[in-house]
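Trying the structure run again after the queue cleared.
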Amino acid sequence: MDHPERIRADFERLVKRPEPALDLARAALLVAAESDPNVDVDGRLHTLDSWAAELRSRLEPDWNNLQKLARLRRFLFEELGFRGDTHDYYNPSNSLLHEVMERRRGIPLTLSIIFMELGWRIGIPFEGVGFPGHFLVRLTGEPGDLLLDPFKRGMTVHEEDCRHMLREATGGRMEFDDELLASVTKRDIIARLLLNLKGAYLRRNQDEQALAAVDRLLLIHPEDAEEVRDRGLLLFRLQRYGAAYQALSAYLEARPEASDRETIERHTLTLRRLVSSLN
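Done. Tokens:
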């Protein structure tokens, strides 16, 4: 098994573990390692452990969650200099955890992963919040739930802030609902990371890399018909006509009432002719 295949196999084994055993940082670094085979996954995890050890040395034994949070904010955003990348937000590097750790710049999701990983290592009960368009972190337990935004240096976020972010992200097409602030699993976080990476690659017409992101999404959610469709469309663009035909046919079977059925059917007819001409 060569290096890329081993990385993919390691990723698949990891994301299929039960939730408590799923190592979020390792999974995110394995996502990055498929884009950059030079990523030292264990080395980057050691860096996170070293940062956490340095942070832990500055805590008092009787500190509560808010006191730990204040020290985490200062350490991550002031001393280490992490911040949101507002200049090149959609750069794929912002979804590759090793790049974010190196550049100290990222998007809400990758900054949240680092924020939570350090918090967990010093005993802060964090949860990920899959808010549309802007990932957040929840501090649970004493003194009560707080929503935090690592893209903005871990600042506290209130409901009105969330309503504003939702309007910005959706152009007012989505109504605010408390369910949008539900906690998500580590597996959900990795799926969202891959969706972000897929989108970043598509913006740059990097179809091969986008396809790799879709393939890993389907390891997490194999029944996701829309990703099966997107896989087929990417394979079509990459001129892998047989595999594209199979994927788009599977999509039509899974979604017989799909709004794009006519378009996809036309693609399958074209693909069938192309496959026949190659035989």
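The chain has two domains: 3-186, 224-279. Worth checking whether this holds up in the mutant runs.
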